[in-house]
Each structure stands twice: as structure tokens, then as C-alpha cells.
Design goal:
Elements lengths: L14 E3 L6 E6 L5 E6 L3 E6 L5 E6 L5 E6 L5 E6 L3 E6 L5 E6 L5 E6 L5 E6 L4 E5 L5 E5 L6 E6 L5 E6 L4 E5 L6 E4 L6 E6 L4 E6 L4 E5 L4 E6 L5 E6 L5 E6 L4 E5 L5 E5 L6 E6 L5 E5 L5 E3 L12
Antiparallel strand pairs: 1-28, 2-3, 3-4, 4-5, 6-7, 7-8, 8-9, 10-11, 11-12, 12-13, 14-15, 15-16, 16-17, 18-19, 19-20, 20-21, 22-23, 23-24, 24-25, 26-27
């Protein structure tokens, strides 16, 4: 884990999580960063205590590899997307499956809650994204326009917009209030693999082309092109929006200054690629990486440990 502000990032602790029997496709931290959620090609999800590394629950229900997972902002729910063409919504406390959301025709690659936890978006190989009502589990809008698989999604922090990233190399931003308002952002030269909003209204997108693009929706323009080398797997803005963290295949975590778009830190700590990163409410940075079917997370106890779970 690395602490914010950027001048004081230091690695404090590394812990390994290794109970899945297949490749780990995604990991997500609860909003308070106390619980880690992982999903895998072994058709299961695991809930972990992020501090102690204790396995809290193994969750099954999907009939195929689980491609994406996410917590609601209040941590009471989590959702999962699967190759079995379904999305499931689960109760975090009981791990009970509350809804099975069906409507996609191919593998579902991404899932995300709105910040108010009322809405869920899913994206699929069928080139569509779908908006769902969380309470009822009903589909209320299908987002059409992409010409490639939809691999990433994110809601704006005011829950007014949702962004989707696609294998058609574009990002689309959809208004939840006005169905006719759709912004198409072009510039990437590869599949768009992750998208992320800041509290200040900026949107970042990462691509297989190795670059991160930072956009302003008001001007519908690209502010910065942050150049890298590997497939960008994850993005996270700090809570104040001053810096952006990116995790990429074959690279370590990079920290970018949002004043000028320059890389101000290149953080090392994983044995291989880092593929997940998120800023905590306190301003620290958690990151996770794949290593022999495991997920790495760092905590803040101040001394390095490598406890194999």
C-alpha cells in the first residue's frame, strides 16, 4: 500500500491471497477497503478480510467463468458478471443471491453500481450495455451504439452519467436523464479496457494501446494523453482529483499529476504486473496484482509480510 500525498508513497505491507483454482479475472475493494472481493475462471467469487487475509466466504452460482465483480458504494451489495451471460446481485452480509439479471446474448465482461446504489450497468460481448434497477432486478434501458465488445464501465459520482469502454476503441458517455444525449470520445488505438470518473468531473480511460486519456466532458475534449507501454488494467483518481493512479500489464503502478499530465511516481511492489488499484477514503493507495492465481494486497501495519493464505 502506498500513502497519499504523492511525495510520501512507500510500500508498507504485502499479503498474498491464493484459494482460487483458476485465473483471477477481477478484484474489488469495499468502499471502506475492509473487504476484498475476487472472481475467477473457476466459476466462483471469494470474500476476504483485506487486513488479515482471512477467507470470509466462497460464493457459487454462476455457470461459467466470472469476469467482473464490484461492491455497491455502501458495501451492502456486490454484483458479478459472467461468461454464462448473466449478472448476479448478492447480499454482502449473507452472500445470498438476490437477483439473477438475464438479457445479454453473450459473455458479460463488466458490471458497475451507480454511486447512489440504485442503478447497475453491465456490458457484454454482444456489443451492448444494459441499465438495471437494483431493487427490482429489472432492465430499464439498453445502451446501443458500440460496434465492439463492451469491456469496461463507470458511473459519474453524481450518478447522472455512465461511461462505457469498448473494443471499438471508443468511450461512450450516456446521460441517465436524457436518452438522446450520448457523447462519443475517440482517440485510442486499441481496445478500451477501463474507465474512471473523478469527483471533479474528469473522465479517464485506459486502453490496450498502453495509453491513458483524460477527458473533460464539458468541452468533450481530451486534456492529457498519458503514455505507457502495457495494457492498462485499472485506473483510480485520488479523492481530491489531484492525481490519477494507473495499473498496467507488465508494468508497475504509475501516479500521474492531473495539473500537467506528468508521471510523478513509478511505484514498485508486485512480483509481476499490477492489475488493480484504488484510493482509500484516507488517501492511501491499495493495489493488487496477479501472481500464480493469487491476488496481492497491501495493508498498513508498517512491516512487510508475505503470508500465504
Amino acid at each position: 500500500m502506498w500513502r497519499h500525498p504523492s511525495a510520501d508513497f512507500t510500500i508498507s505491507n504485502i499479503r498474498y491471497f491464493s484459494r482460487h483454482k483458476g485465473e483471477v479475472n477481477c478484484c474489488a475493494f469495499s468502499h471502506d477497503c475492509q473487504i476484498l472481493l475476487t472472481c475467477s475462471d473457476d466459476w466462483s467469487l471469494h470474500l476476504w478480510n483485506a487486513t488479515s487475509g482471512q477467507l470470509l466466504a466462497k460464493i457459487r452460482g454462476h455457470l461459467g467463468p466470472v469476469k467482473s465483480c464490484v461492491f455497491s458504494s455502501d458495501g451492502k451489495l456486490f454484483a458479478s458478471a459472467s461468461h454464462d451471460r448473466s449478472v448476479r446481485i448478492w447480499n454482502t452480509s449473507t452472500t445470498e443471491c438476490l437477483h439473477v439479471l438475464e438479457g445479454h446474448r453473450k459473455s458479460v465482461e463488466t458490471v458497475c453500481f451507480s454511486d447512489d446504489s440504485r442503478c447497475l450497468v453491465s456490458g457484454s460481448w454482444d456489443q451492448t450495455a444494459v441499465l438495471w434497477d437494483v431493487q427490482s432486478g429489472r432492465m430499464f434501458r439498453m445502451l446501443l451504439g458500440h460496434t465492439g465488445a463492451v469491456q469496461s464501465s463507470a458511473f459519474s459520482t453524481d450518478s447522472q452519467y455512465v461511461a462505457t469502454g469498448s473494443w471499438d476503441y471508443t468511450v461512450r458517455v450516456w446521460s441517465l436523464q436524457n436518452p438522446d444525449e450520448v457523447i462519443t470520445l475517440e482517440g485510442h488505438r486499441g481496445n478500451v479496457s477501463c474507465v474512471c470518473f473523478s469527483l471533479t468531473g474528469m473522465l479517464a480511460s485506459g486502453s490496450w494501446d498502453g495509453n491513458v486519456r483524460v477527458w473533460t466532458l464539458k468541452k468533450r475534449a481530451c486534456l492529457f494523453v498519458l503514455e505507457g507501454r502495457g495494457w492498462v488494467r485499472s485506473l483510480s483518481f485520488s479523492r481530491d482529483g489531484l492525481v490519477l493512479a494507473s495499473a498496467a500489464e507488465g508494468e508497475k503502478v504509475r501516479i500521474w499529476d492531473m495539473e500537467d499530465g506528468k508521471c510523478i511516481r513509478h511505484l514498485k511492489g508486485h512480483r509481476d504486473s499490477a492489475y488493480g488499484c484504488v484510493f482509500t477514503p484516507s488517501g492511501a493507495l491499495l493495489s493488487a496484482g496477479a501472481a500464480e492465481l493469487s491476488v496481492e494486497a497491501e495493508d498498513l501495519d508498517g512491516e512487510n509480510s508475505t503470508d500465504e493464505i
